């Protein structure tokens, strides 16, 4: 069986600086691949390239058998929902001016899957899945705690029915007391939905505990681990 | 680099606009020129055609522009359409007078600025305060009129018109120098406490460096980022000079330009405006050079910045009271008729029938003030809206906008007003267009900063990852985050825009009589200040209140306008 995500010889450049220099790895469905390394080693650039938020300089990113780098912006939009990000900053990843339930509903609306009959129920379901209730849904991000915002961000990612989540340091900005809750939630979701995770972190203990395999990155390259 | 290109393009566009004035205005000066040149000659078709050909008027816009540019390079500015005399000598004569006046007013500005900054220098804290902010906001024409009335007419200390000796220079220099000096003093006084709060000051003091040395170093630390602002203030002097020279009948460049604009003597206007623009450009270049000199290598390595001038702290009650007062007067005046002429009740003192007295034609001043506010504020609101649209549009093209904004910032409203009035004829619409053309840069800068902030947020990456189209992201996420704060910002600029419109009205470049425009009221009232002081001072007081309102509102810009999205790293819920 071919892997869910197959990255080959990925190169990402910012001007003359090479942030990612020939990285190759695979992620299978239901598998968690940890990616660790010091700040500035190219972890987040790899994530941005896999999400196609930044087009790579060269290399292949094959997702579910589709070569993403070959797709145009319009075709890419059809594939994007299947790979969803969870960001580090729980507040920054939500719009400060819209209610949580609207933000979780946004993927449904943008992807043309919203209807007045089923939409609100679907949003409640998604919020319940991450441990938030309808009362949280009516609030604005700054009225929630960081952990609650991170849960809302995960609910938004799930709204697209993804197969792969790119977790870019999802617990680094959280209180230690809240980290375990979020990590357990992610494990649960993986079990019930068979999600693949690319888990980026610089906390080796958390990565070891959480991941099936761990990749180590240094100065844009993977090192043997 | 791209900003430099657009700046050059903008400058070329302004020059071309000046050169094309005769074509834009669609005026045929042949007949008036013929009369000016020789009274006897018959206005035959051949004679008129010869003049048109001589001026390059029949060659279309490009031919005209080429003709003008070629003349410019030879040092030939053409011939006045009204007097038939050479333009260049009038311009150089006016330039000499204006340069002397500006030199004197710069000296005044330095004195005023030092006086405002001195308390902060001595105490090491505080700010310029409300007085400085008020003085900086009051337009030059208002200061000029007040000085004319108080020091010139009532006290009789100085001559009030003409250009004879040093005594003639005092009042115009004060009128130009006080607002400019207040601005300089306020900028320095507000920036100093921040510089004195920096770490190095503590270190120096701990090391036993004397108070004077620390203060000098702080001053030197504060100046470089402020110098571009000083340059802008000096450029503003060229616009202020038009009003002040007109009030005091000083035969300078500004008055020459205004006279030419009013009589549509386009070659003279072109020459005078060109000289004013060159003056402004020279000041800009000089201030940039001075800044580079002061900063040295720091400019290349890392630009030094200081927080912008701190807004004056004003209780929210102040703008509320000022606004209510103005609205009250306006509402009361709107109920009365501003056009009824009663020649038996000319220049009466305030009474129950005429609460603010009557003007020279026996018209009710309160009614005129009320209706004037209605039309001035209405026009200002329209101008604000246009500025908002331009600002939002250009805010999303920051590269193109910076260069254009530099040009717009460097053009005082009065000069743009003269150019517009010369090509369309003076009128309320032209004045509104002139102010709208240059009122957008702060809004565009604000919009650009907000758009950049939104685009850089993880939240927007999430939208992209969802598969939302760029148009959807723009309309549903970027625009709402930008439009709200920028709109509030635009509303706060309304009083300032109304003041600029009034200044054009005052100079006869805006609304025309018998319209009750505030600037026009002020201009008319200046003539009867001694016989009916209350009626004459009413528009001046109203304009001063408007300036105070502008200051008080700007104090609330931070809270009401550019509010940043909350960015927090801690997981602490914060109630609002």
TrEMBL record, chain A:
CDD domains: ABC_NikE_OppD_transporters. Keywords: ATP-binding, Nucleotide-binding, Transport. The keyword Transport applies. GO terms for biological process: transmembrane transport. Residues 5-225 form the ABC transporter domain. One of its GO terms (molecular function) is ATP hydrolysis activity. Belongs to the ABC transporter superfamily. This is Oligopeptide transport system ATP-binding protein. It comes from Streptomyces fulvorobeus.
Automatic annotation (TrEMBL), chain B:
It is found in: Cell membrane. It comes from the Bacteria. Residues 95-287, 369-554 form the ABC transmembrane type-1 domain. Its main location: membrane. One of its GO terms (biological process) is transmembrane transport. Gene3D superfamilies: MetI-like. It is a multi-pass membrane protein. The chain crosses the membrane at residues 99-122, 134-157, 169-189, 230-248, 268-290, 373-394, 414-438, 490-512, 532-555. GO terms for cellular component: plasma membrane. InterPro entries: BP-dependent_transpt_permease, MetI-like, MetI-like_sf. SUPFAM superfamilies: MetI-like (SSF161098). Belongs to the binding-protein-dependent transport system permease family. PANTHER family: D,D-DIPEPTIDE TRANSPORT SYSTEM PERMEASE PROTEIN DDPC-RELATED, OLIGOPEPTIDE TRANSPORT SYSTEM PERMEASE PROTEIN APPC. This is ABC transporter permease. It comes from Streptomyces fulvorobeus.
């Amino acid at each position: 069986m071919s892997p869910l995500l197959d990255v080959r010889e990925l190169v990402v450049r910012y001007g003359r600086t090479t942030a990612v220099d020939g990285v190759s790895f695979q992620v299978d469905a239901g598998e968690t691949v940890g990616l660790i390394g010091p700040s500035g080693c190219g972890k987040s650039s790899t994530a941005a390239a896999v999400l196609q938020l930044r087009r790579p300089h060269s290399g292949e990113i094959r997702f579910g058998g589709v070569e993403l780098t070959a797709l145009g912006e319009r075709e890419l939009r059809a594939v994007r929902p299947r790979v969803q990000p969870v960001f580090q900053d729980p507040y920054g990843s939500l719009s400060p001016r819209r209610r949580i339930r609207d933000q979780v509903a946004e993927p449904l609306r943008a992807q043309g899957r919203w209807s007045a009959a089923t939409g609100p129920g679907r949003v409640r379901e998604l919020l319940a899945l991450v441990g938030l209730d309808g009362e949280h849904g009516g609030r604005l991000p700054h009225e929630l705690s960081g952990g609650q915002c991170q849960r809302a961000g995960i609910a938004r990612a799930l709204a697209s029915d993804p197969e792969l989540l790119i977790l870019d340091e999802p617990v680094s900005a959280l209180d230690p007391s809240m980290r375990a809750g979020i990590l357990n939630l992610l494990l649960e979701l993986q079990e019930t939905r068979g999600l693949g995770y690319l888990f980026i972190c610089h906390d080796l203990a958390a990565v070891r505990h959480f991941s099936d395999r761990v990749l180590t990155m240094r100065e844009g390259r993977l090192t043997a681990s | 680099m791209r900003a430099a290109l657009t700046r050059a393009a903008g400058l070329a566009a302004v020059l071309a606009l000046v050169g094309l004035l005769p074509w834009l205005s669609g005026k045929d000066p042949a007949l008036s020129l013929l009369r000016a040149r020789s009274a006897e000659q018959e206005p035959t078709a051949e004679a008129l055609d010869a003049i048109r050909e001589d001026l390059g008027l029949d060659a279309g816009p490009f031919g005209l522009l080429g003709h003008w540019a070629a003349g410019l390079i030879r040092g030939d500015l053409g011939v006045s359409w009204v007097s038939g005399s050479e333009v260049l000598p009038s311009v150089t004569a006016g330039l000499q007078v204006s340069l002397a006046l500006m030199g004197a007013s710069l000296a005044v500005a330095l004195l005023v600025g030092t006086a405002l900054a001195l308390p902060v220098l001595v105490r090491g804290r505080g700010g310029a305060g409300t007085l400085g902010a008020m003085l900086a906001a009051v337009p030059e024409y208002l200061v000029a009129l007040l000085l004319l009335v108080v020091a010139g007419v009532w006290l009789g200390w100085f001559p009030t018109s003409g250009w004879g000796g040093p005594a003639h220079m005092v009042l115009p220099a004060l009128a130009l120098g006080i607002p400019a000096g207040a601005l300089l003093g306020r900028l320095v006084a507000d920036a100093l406490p921040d510089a004195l709060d920096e770490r190095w000051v503590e270190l120096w003091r701990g090391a036993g460096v004397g108070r004077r040395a620390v203060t000098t170093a702080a001053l030197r630390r504060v100046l470089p980022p402020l110098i571009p602002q000083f340059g802008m203030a000096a450029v503003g002097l060229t616009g202020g000079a038009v009003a002040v020279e007109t009030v005091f009948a000083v035969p300078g460049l500004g008055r020459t330009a205004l006279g030419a604009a009013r009589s549509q003597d386009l070659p003279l206007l072109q020459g005078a405006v060109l000289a004013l623009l060159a003056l402004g450009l020279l000041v800009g270049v000089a201030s940039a050079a001075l800044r580079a000199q002061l900063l040295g290598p720091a400019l290349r390595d890392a630009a030094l910045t200081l927080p912008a001038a701190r807004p004056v702290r004003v209780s929210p009650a102040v703008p509320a009271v000022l606004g209510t007062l103005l609205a009250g007067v306006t509402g009361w005046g709107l109920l009365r008729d501003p056009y009824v002429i009663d020649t038996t009740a000319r220049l009466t003192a305030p009474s129950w029938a005429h609460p603010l007295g009557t003007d020279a034609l026996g018209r009710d001043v309160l009614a005129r003030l009320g209706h004037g506010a209605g039309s001035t504020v209405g026009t200002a609101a329209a101008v604000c809206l246009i500025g908002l649209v331009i600002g939002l549009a250009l805010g999303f093209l920051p590269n193109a906008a910076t260069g254009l904004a530099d040009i717009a910032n460097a053009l005082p409203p009065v000069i743009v007003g003269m150019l517009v009035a010369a090509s369309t004829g003076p009128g309320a619409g032209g004045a509104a267009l002139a102010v709208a053309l240059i009122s957008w840069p702060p809004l565009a800068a604000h919009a650009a900063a907000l758009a950049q902030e939104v685009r850089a947020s993880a939240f927007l990456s999430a939208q992209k990852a969802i598969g939302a189209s760029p148009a959807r992201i723009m309309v549903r996420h970027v625009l709402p985050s930008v439009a709200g704060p920028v709109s509030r910002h635009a509303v706060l600029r309304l009083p300032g825009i109304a003041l600029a419109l009034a200044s054009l009205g005052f100079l006869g470049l805006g609304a025309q009589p018998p319209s009750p425009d505030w600037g026009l009221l002020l201009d008319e009232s200046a003539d009867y200040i001694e016989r009916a002081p209350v009626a004459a001072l009413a528009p001046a007081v109203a304009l001063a209140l408007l300036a105070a309102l502008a200051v008080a509102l700007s104090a609330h810009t931070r809270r009401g306008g550019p509010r940043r999205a909350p960015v927090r790293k801690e997981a602490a819920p914060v109630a609002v």
